[in-house]
Design goal:
The protein has 18 helices and 13 strands. The protein has 477 residues and is α+β, with helices and mostly antiparallel strands. The strands form four sheets. Strands 1, 3, 4, 6 and 9 form a five-stranded antiparallel β-sheet that branches. A four-stranded mixed β-sheet has the order 5-2-11-12, with no helix packed on it.
Length: 477
């Protein structure tokens, strides 16, 4: 438990922090000794650090508590702006030193792991407070931001690379992260990336990847107002041009064509202005390459290659020799509702949505519910995974607005990381084999390959070698 969590536990009023007396400190120490019984992660070391921070750096402690981004990150909360009365921080170096002294042990591994895993949900909010973070942390954040933009820019230019490594370009949180760090260097790289995505869109106006990227980019508020305007226009144009898949789209085709032409013309002018201002901006030097590719790329290569990748992940999960497992390490800390994977189905489960169902695992086996979207009617795209312990239930929230959602079921016991002789390997954190069950149900491959569409809550059991699902309106493919 860090010092911010301890302050929340004690319900300390931040306005009183600089004026505390010896009796207050004695009272806090007594209460924390009592709370040790209820909070195993409340150690004597953390109590000592808390009291020292409050005694010797009360103003810095107060500033961190009053900064929404810093407080929510360290307190693991999600409080709104209305709950804070932020004060002007005059000495940024003092705040950096405070965080370096009392909170760096928690900050460093979290930031590095999350950015390395392309998980920007919490980092996006933290980036707003980057001026107050220790220099080595902010330097790493800027380095990762530039690296991710460069990788995406290179991957989307012919010859195309592995799109699965740049899924973050469809994530609004990635651009919120960039928005928090925003400076001239980041701006130049965002402009170059925008041009590359626009080239891809011009070559294939039905591109689902371009449409989702433009939508995510709307969360980046550029230093150059023209860039923000053109991101918005390309987003609208991409949505319009994606509509021919809908019923009666031909009726309004001439309107779509006119709007798209005007948008592209306006963006051409915009790119010309940028090219004059910055020689690093790539303009349209690769447009001919995209145009040559456009006739054969009716659907983004990322989507058409996904079947092979999903099949490979299934082999990894279920098609290995259980008698040849080695270097086994069990993973027992995972809770129902969490996602056990980092390398595939790596996105975190969505928050509240208009589509949710309760899935109960009434079997004697643990279960991972794999959530997929179906695009272009036939292409399955991995979204996320939901771990459900034997005998427990989870509320599964999913986005079913623009794609059909289907589920696959993976069951077994003793989730673990281990090695086998299989060539199908998925590695997390650069060295650890992805988690999977070390004991599998009979017929696991058959169960895993079956697609399910849930219309209502479902109770799932495994009896006498067969999966049984009690759910009204269940569709099995």
């Amino acid at each position: 438990m860090n010092i911010i969590e301890i302050a929340v536990l004690l319900s300390i009023e931040t306005s009183k922090m600089p004026f505390l007396k010896a009796t207050d400190f004695a009272e806090f120490e007594s209460k924390l000794e009592d709370e040790k019984q209820n909070h195993p992660n409340l150690t004597q070391e953390s109590i000592t650090s808390f009291l020292a921070a409050l005694k010797y750096s009360p103003k810095q402690f107060q500033a961190v508590m009053n900064n929404r981004a810093l407080f929510n990150f360290f307190a693991k909360k999600n409080r709104s702006k209305k709950q804070f009365q932020e004060v002007t921080i005059e000495d940024e170096q003092a705040i950096k030193g405070f965080i370096q002294t009392y909170l760096i042990a928690e900050l460093n591994p979290f930031v590095y792991d999350k950015m390395g895993a392309n998980d920007f949900q919490e980092i996006a909010s933290l980036s707003e407070a980057h001026p107050y973070l220790p220099d080595r942390v902010t330097e790493k954040m800027f380095y990762y931001a530039a690296e991710k933009l460069d990788l995406a820019n290179q991957t989307l230019k012919p010859p195309f690379r592995d799109f699965s490594k740049i899924l973050y370009i469809k994530d609004a949180n990635f651009f919120l992260f960039l928005n928090g760090l925003k400076n001239e260097v980041i701006e130049v790289k965002v402009k170059a990336f925008f041009t590359t995505v626009m080239n891809m869109y011009i070559a294939d106006k039905s591109s689902e990847l371009a449409k989702r990227t433009f939508t995510a980019m709307k969360n980046y508020h550029s230093l150059d107002e023209n860039l923000s305007k053109n991101i918005g226009m390309l987003k609208e144009s991409a949505e319009i041009n994606y509509k021919p898949f809908a019923v009666n789209a031909k009726k309004y085709y001439w309107i779509y064509a006119v709007v798209a032409t005007l948008v592209i013309w306006r963006v051409w002018l915009f790119v010309g202005d940028i090219s004059e201002m910055n020689s690093q901006f790539d303009s349209y030097q690769n447009y001919d390459d995209y145009e040559m590719q456009s006739e054969s790329r009716k659907i983004d290569r990322y989507y058409t290659d996904m079947k092979f990748k999903i099949d490979s992940f299934r082999v990894f999960l279920a098609d290995y020799n259980q008698s040849k497992i080695r270097r086994l390490t069990h993973f027992s800390n995972i809770k129902t509702g969490q996602n056990p994977f980092e390398t595939f189905y790596e996105n975190q489960p969505t928050g509240e949505s208009n589509n949710y169902l309760k899935v109960s695992n009434v079997s004697n086996y643990d279960m991972v519910l794999l959530e997929n979207a179906v695009l272009y009617d036939t292409i399955k795209m991995p979204r996320t995974a939901h771990f459900i312990k034997a005998g427990e239930s989870a509320e599964v929230n999913f986005n079913n607005v623009d794609a059909k959602t289907i589920f696959n079921i993976y069951m077994g016991k003793k989730l673990a990381t281990f090695q086998t002789e299989s060539t199908h390997l998925f590695i997390r954190n650069g060295s650890v084999v992805e988690y999977r069950f070390s004991e599998l149900i009979p017929n696991v491959k058959e169960v895993l390959e079956t697609d399910y569409i849930f219309k209502n809550d479902a109770a799932i059991d495994f009896i006498n070698g067969h999966l049984r699902i009690d759910s009204e309106g269940l569709i099995e493919n």
